[in-house]
Backbone:
């Protein structure tokens, strides 16, 4: 496995639309549009298959359920 970081983001315009659908006020929307703007995902990639697993979001480790 190879561990690396990637970044994903939403655009502010789509978040504004989503916030309006939620009924958020304009003052709240100004802050809400940055949710998901730049999110760091730490992933483990299987170099043989290309399969990837997210292990952390913004440096916060994800809890993986034990089977």
Residues:
């Amino acid at each position: 496995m190879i561990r690396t970081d990637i970044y994903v983001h939403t655009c502010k315009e789509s978040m504004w639309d989503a916030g309006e659908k939620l009924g958020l006020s304009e003052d709240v929307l100004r802050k809400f549009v940055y949710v998901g703007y730049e999110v760091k995902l730490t992933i483990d990639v299987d170099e043989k298959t290309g399969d990837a697993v997210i292990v952390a979001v913004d440096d916060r480790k994800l809890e993986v359920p034990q089977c």
The beta strands are 2-8, 39-45, 52-57, 60-61.
